[in-house]
Write a structure and sequence with these properties.
The protein has 7 helices and no strands. It is mainly alpha-helical. The chain has one domain: NusB-like (N-utilizing Substance Protein B Homolog, Chain A, Orthogonal Bundle), CATH 1.10.940. Helix 4 crosses helix 5.
């Protein structure tokens, strides 16, 4: 599994977590794996662990860099991608921030709109400059 594929699998879990707030990431992963819906490798596992254990800090970073939106009003796909990308930028040192931003934009193009991809790109650019 490539890192891009691992990111996509982690994105699916984080997207599901938005709708299943009472479930832990581990429960979501377990249920999805049991049903054969996802495969999680070590890289995806690290991303999910970092996103889960640092969720409040990640959301604060996102909220502080939004322009014209509140975190509650963001499209759910955008929120999941931003959470994934910020967890990678902030807590995974071996991946350059530019690579993470590009991967996030590609996920947005695949699962969101072109406008959403541009917005996420801008938010992540501001986050990278601020860190």
């Amino acid at each position: 599994m490539t890192r891009s594929e691992a990111r996509e699998q982690a994105f699916f879990v984080l997207f599901e977590k938005i709708f299943c707030e009472d479930e832990t990431i581990e429960e979501i992963v377990g249920n999805a794996q049991e049903a054969g819906l996802i495969k999680i490798n070590n890289f995806a596992s690290v991303l999910l662990e970092k996103a889960g254990s640092n969720g409040d800090e990640i959301d604060t970073i996102i909220a502080d860099n939004l322009r014209g939106w509140s975190i509650q009003r963001l499209p759910k796909v955008s929120l999941a991608v931003l959470r994934l990308a910020v967890s990678e930028i902030k807590y995974v040192d071996e991946v350059p921030a530019g690579v993470t931003v590009n991967e996030a934009v590609e996920l947005m193009k695949k699962y969101g709109t072109t406008d959403d991809a541009s917005y996420v790109n801008g938010v992540l650019g501001a986050i990278v400059k601020g860190l």
